[in-house]
Amino acid sequence: MKQEIHFVTGKGGVGKSVIAAAMALKKSREGKKVLLVELGDISFFKDFFDLPSVGYQPTRIKDNLSVALWDGEAALKEYARHFIKVEAIVKLFFENAVMKALVNVAPGLSELAIVGKVTSGPRKHGPPLPFDCIVVDGFATGHFIALLEAPRGMAQAVQFGPMGEQSRSIDACLRNTDLCHYHVVTLPEELPVKEASELIHRLKAEFSVSAEILMNKIIQTKLTSADLKDAKAENSDLGKFAEYLDYQLTRQSEMLERTKQATEKVQHLPLLYETYAWTLTEKIAEALK
Amino acid sequence: MSSAIFQETKILVCVGSGGVGKTTVAASLAVLAAKEGKKVLVLTIDPAKRLAQTLGIEGTKDVTRVPGQDFKGELYASVIDHKKTFDDFVARAAKKSEAVEKIYKNKLYQQLSTSLSGSQEFTALEKLYSIYESQAFDLIILDTPPTKHALDFLQAPQKLSALFTEGVAKWFRDPAGKKTSFLGKMLHTGTKQVLKALEVLTGSNFIHELGDFFINIEQWQEQLLKRTTEVHRMLTAPSTRFCLVTSFDQAKLKEAEFFSHQIRLGGHNLTTVVLNRVFPYWLDLSAEAAAEKAHSELVNLYSQMRNYYNQKDQLYKKFEATMKKDARIFRIPDLVKDISDLSGLEEVSALIVEGEKKA
């Protein structure tokens, strides 16, 4: 079974979680068995989709679609359980205060455990993960790079033994463009576009992968500056709106130009006036290529 | 006249998840304080290029007097240099210089000191503390690192120091407990098993690197614990206030409620909640525009957005109602345009004053 892995990242606040959910929904509707993964210890999707709970073990939320929340400690625990087998030692290991502190702080360990888990399917290492497609709602840009760099950093620091071996295998998997796909979400605004472009370059330079940009919240209209000229002159709410729209549209096309310089792979997603979570997710899923 | 936000405040910490506009809010609050006559410093993490230019801190990490100001007080700004702050701390904490060199060379340290596991939070607090200690400013406003959650910031120092209180280095120096007493040996039996398990999972090479790392940093222990205590005292002092910046959808608001609860549980003073960029500046929900003459598509877009924000308004009202008893809550509309000079920051600070009045 060939498993696809999709990483969705971008600056904070650009809407990457909703887009990750939409991508997962779209894949599930294509008949794939999909796992939507969020990282960390507090679930966004629980509140967003109003689910009873989201935890480490996948929870089914729709046909072919499950969601899970993975953090470093839980991933490490599961991994340890799989390989140590003796429950008493696993317990001793994780109830040990030093180990707990270590897992929290030891440089890169938590990140390594997470990417190890995400890539465990194709690497056939660790507990089985019976899904055709994993969509990871990744960390925001900076932390995301740290997540991807952890295996290589660890492989350099630890050359021998299982840790070094696993780190190299995870790193290779992350670079395998048949398996792993990277999606950088951005908004038509200066800072998110700058972050997205820099990330695209780094992914290319450090991992030789070419990521796609998903430009979110594009105002879709045929209105031009000329159309807005008269309305702008009015001193009313609508007049102010016309001014706002004119500014937004100009900036939008400027930002679209700028993203084209970073990569040819750019998808546009419309700004949607929708507050209900599932409807919003469905609409974005429909807009995704 | 002084804003209620700054009353009896020496440190104002702006927390919130990524992308909510913390940096802009922090800088605008600093402008407001300077206008009110305070000598104020805003410590930022990673400002946008134009904001950095505006503050005169582009390309420098030094504390800089913001150029082109004409306030009653004085406005200073600085960007935190994580690597340097961390290295400086290590140099001060370690007693011997060869030990400093050794730790700089350790591969795990190199990762720790740059981007991983709470190090940015640690350096932000380290920098804040050293400036606070110098008493050079009436008020320091701290913009916090872009964590996924506001809580990561507050938990980082405890996480780091937990490692030292448990004496992890002792393990690696003497895992078999050879040189210790009988009781020590008994205690170490558990340790041995745990280390053995770790070795099964990771290999002896990793254990060796890790051991080297911990033994090298063991000498910081005293300094680090001292600092953690001092920083904790600073963060729970009555004159240190927290400002939670949040925005957007329902999930973000629920998250904000949770944070504010946790911040208070930690013994901190959360006094202000800012809903940032909630509504675009053009929107006056109380007045609908008469728009017979305008372009039909424009009117169409306008009413779509209006409806959308009207729905959102309901969510915000609920949020305000639940939070109101504990903190001052106000909204700042989305100015949309990027801030490119001091007058832009003044514009936001005027909106803050306005929002505060309404709250």
Provide the low-confidence segments of chain A as ranges. none
The unreliable regions of chain B are: 181-187
Treating each run of at least 4 consecutive H or I residues as one helix, how many helices of chain B?
A: 14
* Spatial strand arrangement across the major sheet of chain A: 3-4-2-5-1-6-7-8
* Overall number of strands of chain B: 8
| Termini gap of chain A | 24 Å
C-alpha Rg of chain B (nearest Å)? 24 Å
Structural class by sheet pairing and helices of chain B? alpha/beta
Largest sheet of chain A: 8 strands, mixed
Q: Work out the strand percent of chain A.
A: 15-25%
Report the portion of residues of chain B in β strands.
5-15%
InterPro entries (chain B): ArsA/GET3_ATPase-like, ATPase_ArsA/GET3, P-loop_NTPase
Protein name (chain B): arsenite-transporting ATPase
Organism (chain B): Bdellovibrio reynosensis
EC number (chain B): 7.3.2.7
Helix and strand topology:
The complex is a heterodimer of chains A (289) and B (359).
Chain A: E1 4-10, H1 16-29, E2 34-39, H2 45-48, E3 59-62, E4 65-70, H3 72-84, H4 87-95, H5 97-105, H6 109-118, H7 120-123, E5 133-137, H8 141-157, H9 161-175, E6 180-186, H10 190-207, E7 212-218, H11 225-233, H12 237-262, E8 266-270, H13 277-287
Parallel strand pairs in A: 1-5, 1-6, 2-4, 2-5, 6-7, 7-8
Antiparallel strand pairs in A: 3-4
Chain B: E1 11-15, H1 22-35, E2 39-44, H2 49-55, E3 64-65, E4 74-79, H3 82-93, H4 97-105, H5 107-114, H6 119-134, E5 139-143, H7 150-165, H8 168-173, H9 182-202, H10 204-217, H11 221-236, E6 240-246, H12 250-265, E7 269-280, H13 296-323, E8 328-334, H14 342-358
Parallel strand pairs in B: 1-5, 1-6, 2-4, 2-5, 6-7, 7-8
Antiparallel strand pairs in B: 3-4
